[in-house]
Amino acid sequence: MIDTDIIRNEIGEVGYSVTRGVIEKQQCAEWVRSYGDQQLFRKRIVMEAHGYGAGEYQYFRYPLPDPIQALRSDWYRRLAPIANDWNERLGIAVRYPATHEQYLVICHQSGQERPTPLLLKYKAGDFNRLHQDIYGEHLFPMQVAILLSEPGSDFTGGEFLVSEQRTRM
Predict the structure, then answer these.
(1) Positive/negative CA dihedral, 41, 119, 19, 139
(2) Is the model's pLDDT at 98 over the cut of 90?
(3) Are 45 and 52 in contact (CB under 8 A)?
(4) Nearest to 12 by CA among 2, 4, 24
(5) Segments making up each domain of the chain, as ranges
(6) pLDDT for position 79
(7) In the structure, what pLDDT confidence band is assigned to residue 168 with cuts at 50, 70 and 90?
(8) pLDDT single digits (tens) 106-153
(9) Cut 0.90: pTM above it
(10) Please, are residues 52 and 128 in contact by the beta-carbon 8 Å criterion?
(11) Do 115 and 132 meet the contact criterion of CB atoms below 8 Å apart?
(12) Which of 26, 42, 106, 159 would give a disulfide with 61, using CB separation of 3.0 to 4.6 Å?
């Protein structure tokens, strides 16, 4: 079960939250297998070519697969109030609407029409450097990353590490 209050508290205390069991193992395996289905994706990025790290990812195309669209809408609904609280505390005037569908209308009206959900593919030694893929003036300040592989079973070693970006560091 996803407890939004725990997520809110953890983000406030440490800047991130870890939630387990977001999707079933079977769905994880299906998404891993789907990486080769080019009909699902609009663009492939080889990270080395852009200085983003080592590995690759692909952006899904519209219409998004139903499970991804459902997750996207559900997580937005949970995170928008947290983002709004933070913007208020920081004196940022931007407020996010209650639903992802409403937010997409705002984005699409300003010309931001490409879907941003993506699927990453790593092999041993690959990594993703801190960067942002920004497509216009409207951006949601939080991201959800879902690990599709099972640590210790599908791979060993490696860590998921998120660090803060600071100017000139």
Answers:
(1) negative
(2) yes
(3) yes
(4) 4
(5) 36-146
(6) 97
(7) low
(8) 999 999 999 999 999 999 889 888 777 888 999 999 999 999 998 888
(9) no
(10) yes
(11) no
(12) 42
Read off the tokens for 17: 């939250």
DSSP structure class, residue 17: -
In terms of Cα–Cα distance, which of 44, 41, 80 is closest to 64? 41
Going by pLDDT thresholds of 50, 70 and 90, the confidence category of residue 164 is low
34: CB partners within 8 A, 6+ apart: 40, 65, 119
Which own/partner contact pairs does 103-106 have at CB distance under 8 Å and 24+ positions apart? 103/76, 103/138, 103/140, 106/138
